[in-house]
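Pilot study result, target chain (321 residues):
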Amino acid sequence: MFALGTFADGGDAFAGLVVDDRVVDLRTALGSDINTAALLADWPDSLERLRQLAECDLGRAMPLSALRPLPPISPARQVFCAGANYITHLREMAYTGARGAPGESRPDEEVKAEAEIAVQNFLAAKAPPFVFTVQSSALSGAHDDVVLWGPGSAHDWELELAIVIGRAARDVTPGEAMGHVAGYTIANDISTRDVMFRPNFPLSDFLMSKGRPTFKPTGPYLVPREFVEDYRQLRIRLKVNGEVMQDEAVADIMFGVEELVSYTSSVTPLEPGDLLLTGSPAGNAGIHGNRWLRPGDVIEAEITGLGSQRNTCVPDPRHRN
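Predicted structure:
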């Protein structure tokens, strides 16, 4: 097994081949101008070259722990995000919405019943996936600080399996979709809940709530699809200051990788290097008593076989005393 990423060792960023927690600088073998976006642009041939390199002597490899992982795809391309795509998460969102504002008192069974009606109505509508975009400037590395930008203070986490596109896709069927997937990585969709909706204006502000710099820690690397036997068996796990907040199998997903790639490609062309976040499972801050992220919090996140992230939350630099 091997992986592909973008790393820095104090100098310039470089594309690296990851084998057994060691990283080979691909500039030596593939040229000084090589980057991960270029490799994905010719993914079938690149995958074979990487496979051959992974079988060679890695004596000059650097320890992964000594490097700073950057967003794996460089230069970054389009970033798509799926929302409300896990059944248990959907139930939690409906529950917290039905519960009302802090201080309101309603019988819990009444709240749960109202939430379940909302979920069943949502499912009965058989709507297509909900997919939106965020700008690539929101991407950050797997160990970078997360800046808790204002306005807004209800900063939340959403750990997600992310798809990396490896072959151009336009109007592909679900049955064809996997042939366009290069591999998988980890992404945390940091979201500021209290600026997501404008007062008296029924539209979502994803630029402000989800698109701020550092709000999408991604990586540490891309794992080729061939090494993930069944993405639905992967487990998503996130901790804040050592406390488990999310721990859910991808099997709870509503629209899988096949449906998401197919649907998104029916709306807009997908190109090699595009990222598609597949949605957050259960366990966001709302279900933990609105325990929002605060400066100093440490987020530790992992998905089976895809590596791990460790990000420290820091205050908005414009508002420090």
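One observation from the pilot: Helices lie at 27-30, 36-41, 43-54, 87-99, 108-124, 174-177, 206-210, 257-267. A full batch analysis is planned for the follow-on phase.
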